[in-house]
Design brief:
Blueprint: H1 5-34, H2 38-64, H3 84-111, H4 115-145, H5 149-159
């Protein structure tokens, strides 16, 4: 079954959103690197790599379905951050946005009776549950530090334990 033009366009938009997410997380990682929070920097770098992997899964899926990839301009992410709490809150809000975009794409697939796309997107829906939980936990951890550098360093150390699977 060939992918419809509207689903193809929606996937191309989502690929762009995933690549923007990667840019955003790299920008966040750069802030942490510049501020000697290497655990946070590593975590956000891995997160950025995951977003590229998500985009590539969609890219391959569209091509396998006979669709055309149309890459669009990736907007520059925010690069000016005040503090760690601002970043982790923004990361959480961004994951909520990505969830809404994937949900919309899933609903569009169902409404067009494109069950192959809907089935493919179930993995991303499950992934977003994990992404929201992880970034929500980060917000809570950073809030618990109450701005104390020593406690933030403990959280940073915990963040460094994330390994690329």
């Amino acid at each position: 079954m060939t992918i419809s033009k509207s689903i193809e366009n929606a996937f191309n938009e989502q690929i762009n959103a995933e690549l923007f997410s990667s840019y955003l997380y790299l920008s966040m990682s750069a802030y942490f690197s510049a501020n000697n929070l290497t655990g946070f920097a590593s975590w956000f770098t891995i997160q950025a790599q995951e977003e590229v992997e998500h985009a590539m899964k969609m890219y391959k899926f569209v091509l396998e379905r006979g669709g055309k990839i149309t890459l669009k301009t990736i907007n520059a992410p925010k690069a000016d951050f005040k503090n760690t709490l601002e970043i982790v809150e923004e990361a959480y809000k961004h994951e909520l946005l990505v969830t809404s975009l994937i949900t919309k794409l899933y609903e569009t697939s169902l409404s067009e009776k494109d069950y192959a796309s809907a089935n493919f997107l179930k993995w991303f829906i499950d992934e977003q549950v994990e992404e929201e939980a992880n970034t929500s936990q980060l917000v809570e951890w950073v809030k618990m530090t109450e701005g104390k550098a020593s406690t933030l360093m403990m959280v940073d150390h915990q963040m460094s334990k994330r390994a690329k699977d």
